Amino acid sequence: MGILTLYCADATIGKFEKSSLSQQTLMELLISKLTANAETICDSPDYPIEITSWNGLRLNKENEVLRIVWNSFYVSGSMPLEYLPLTVEAVSMPCNYLSGTIDLTQLPDTLQRLDLQGNRLEGTIDLTCLPVSLSELTVSQNKLVGTVDLIQLPPNMSELDLSENDFEGVTDFTKLPDSLKVIHVTKTKLSGEVDDFSGSHFWC
Fold this sequence. Notes:
Blueprint: H1 2-11, H2 15-19, H3 23-30, E1 34-36, H4 39-42, E2 57-59, E3 65-69, E4 76-77, E5 90-92, E6 97-100, E7 113-115, E8 120-123, E9 136-138, E10 143-146, E11 159-161, E12 166-170, E13 182-184, E14 189-191, E15 201-203
Parallel strand pairs: 3-5, 4-6, 5-7, 6-8, 7-9, 8-10, 9-11, 10-12, 11-13, 12-14, 13-15
Antiparallel strand pairs: 1-4, 2-3
């Protein structure tokens, strides 16, 4: 029983626990599962330098992370997004070799944009617990599978790109938020009726 309790406690990290960790610690945890080219981010993954000197980060005056831009850094391994600092507003990691599954249910409430295009991500994704502030989500050109639930998207979402994945099944496209202007589902096996989508672009 004790082992099971410990495992469950360590399986995820809640927002309360995250708030007690430093930005440096959270960022080190974020890259802790990279297996190649982590040095392009922090010089040495075994002895990371201060995040004020990391590549691709934008910090505020309090040295809190606002943006992460790791485009084409060619890093390999997994990226546990649950460790994103609570201050992050935008994450851009396209054209890398990120693999494994992704948890989109514990993203920071402040997050507005997330781009994971062109990686090797696998498994299913949960779109029912995205941050209210999220306006753009791109997970195209990965190896994601399963069905997708689009009836609980954030009310301010303007662009959603699910294209070039192995998603399949009947999908409810009739309850998309009014704010959604562009949705890409090309090269997937998703199907379903589309409600009135006038003024927006639906690519299938």
